Amino acid sequence: MSTLDDGTPRTAGDARPGGASGPGVPGAGAGFSRRRLLGTAGAAGAAGLVAGGAAGAGIAAAAEDRPAALASVGAAHIPFEGAHQAGIVEPAQARGHLVAFDLAPGAGRGAAAALLRRWSDAVREMTRPGRPGTPAVYDDQVADDAGPSSLTVTFGFGRTFFARTGLTARLPEALAPLPDFPADALDPRRSNGDLWVQIGADDALVAFHALRVVQRAAAGTAAVRWQMNGFNRTPGATARPRTARNLMGQIDGTNNPKPSEPDFARTVFVPAAGSAASAAASAAGGGGTGTSPAWMAGGSYAVVRRIRMLLDSWDHLPVARQEKVIGRRKSDGAPLSGGTGTTPVDLERIGADGALAIAGDAHIRVAAAASNSGAAMLRRAFSFHDGIGTDGTPDAGLLFIAWQADPMRGFVPVQRKLDGADGLSRFLRHEASGLFAVPGGAGPGEYVGQSLLEG
């Protein structure tokens, strides 16, 4: 579990006032370690300087010889190396970029391996504590003066990657194509891809700089298939860390699985083949040796959906009606079954009018694990706003990313039910989709995907 700077526990749904840390690797019989928040030494600003007079000038000159301390948001550091890739369990940052690449004609396994090494080496440098650097060949000075700002860059492989690199024998069963959902309106030009990259940072220039480095490092090997840009609330914008709101004004992510829960690792991460965790996952019907090869141990599967919110229609609903559609109060996120924003939902509660307090088609009822035979996933999203669409309404909504050990036992059964029974679906349009295998993290000197590409 991650913590606030004062040691207060933080969940994956919380915003960071100055950075984040996340759990380490779930192994057989092992608990979670903590990702350490590094590089945060130093005050929130540089020390004041004395002005005027000879003595004051001398003090100012001496101070200028020392590098100024980074502010807390800039200093926040999330390690690149680890058994899991960063950018999965950490709270979603203020700025995000999702980008998919297709390999260039003739670029096979060797070229892909070289690209993943270039990407990993560059990200390792950009995310180091203190004032991060940039490999000289990619240094455009866009992020000069900034710290790592909780930068994470996460890499994944699409289903088509395996055929194009001659690795079909290592294609995970869990990477099967997602089924068609009746309400989908997907644009194939903005869906899928050979490679997928998720970038997040709490500074817009740091995030953009990382995006440019990734794109430039891919030149000649892979070309951008699609790119999506998103945002969340900025750390420090609220008096205390809070679960974020989406563009409908709803608090979004309250019921996310939490690292403190005993089945969190089994829900989100692929266990090592042959481990006790793998056996437990298989027995429970989630992930395991039957769906993922050894190179995916410690990894996860990301379902990516661009979900447009029909905001003009939504905003015409009275707040009380909006709350019934969601099943929560808009003011504080408390379930209509009673309590506060952190109170578990009581799906059996009957209201004063004799009806279910949480309506039968309320979003939180239909999406609940209890309504889907225990199916669960970790949701980590960014909002987006791309101007006004051709229909004259806001082209805005959610870049939805669902993490799970097996999408066929996580996202798919939940989305099937949402597609047919969720009252919120009338105000949403799923416009793009992708599924990617995200391997475990890299160790010192390694690159992401090395066990796949060299094993």
TrEMBL record:
The keyword Oxidoreductase applies. One of its GO terms (molecular function) is ferrochelatase activity. Residues 243-441 form the Dyp-type peroxidase C-terminal domain. InterPro entries: Dimeric_a/b-barrel, Dyp_perox_C, Dyp_perox_N, Dyp_peroxidase, EfeB/EfeN, TAT_signal. It is found in: Cell envelope. Its cofactor is heme b. PROSITE patterns: DYP_PEROXIDASE, TAT. It comes from the Bacteria. Residues 19-30 have a biased composition (Gly residues). Belongs to the DyP-type peroxidase family. This is Deferrochelatase.
